[in-house]
Design goal:
The chain is mainly α and 199 residues long. The protein contains nine helices and three strands, in the order H-H-H-H-H-H-H-E-H-E-E-H.
């Protein structure tokens, strides 16, 4: 086993999962035995816990509203499952947010509001990055439909107030051209967007 393969295996173990490519590496019996016992070593467990703590910190910073909604609605297992089972693909906040939003879209336990809020926060982050890079095409205009009043929902999540009850549909527009990258779509925008507001 080459030094490069040893290093790759240790990095992947530290990130909490084993690489599929390990199956393609020619290992001696002693190397295979050593790698099998490595994930259970105390030192590696500390490293894994540190890595997981940094991931949680990235998520809390990149998707504060989504993380708070998950906690407030009792779906903490979504966070634990993501941290433990989803591989670390990047150390960048925006990439972590995108991976987390995609994970939530596909998880069966994720609610429609959690999914839409995660997608919204991801779109705002992309709109910001597009505005900084002066590349509006990198983040096209997106529209998100909420079944909560989004302003009341955001306020509740940020202040600890009670979550609002379901109401009519609300639409948020996200674009790098907007002053704060998002806004609630007023009544006059619904027809232009091809949307129909439900009463």
């Amino acid at each position: 086993m080459s030094l490069l393969e040893v290093q790759r295996s240790m990095v992947e173990f530290a990130r909490g999962y084993q690489r599929e490519s390990r199956k393609q590496v020619q290992l001696t019996q002693a190397e295979s035995k050593w790698l099998d016992q490595l994930p259970n070593s105390p030192g590696l467990k500390v490293t894994q816990q540190t890595q997981q703590w940094w991931r949680i910190t990235r998520l809390c910073s990149a998707a504060p509203l989504t993380v708070e909604l998950i906690k407030r609605t009792g779906f903490d297992e979504l966070l634990y499952d993501y941290i433990i089972n989803e591989p670390v693909r990047s150390l960048f906040f925006a990439a972590e947010l995108e991976q987390f939003a995609n994970y939530l879209q596909q998880h069966s336990a994720s609610t429609p509001t959690i999914k839409i809020l995660a997608a919204f926060e991801c779109a705002v982050k992309n709109a910001y990055q597009a505005s900084v890079s002066n590349d509006a095409h990198a983040s096209p205009v997106k529209t998100f439909q909420f079944t909560y009043d989004p302003i009341a929902l955001f306020n509740a999540l940020l202040t600890g107030a009670a979550l609002p009850s379901h109401a009519q549909h609300y639409y948020l527009i996200v674009s790098p051209d907007l002053p704060h990258f998002w806004r609630v779509a007023p009544e006059v925008d619904y027809q232009a967007l091809g949307l129909h507001r439900n009463h």
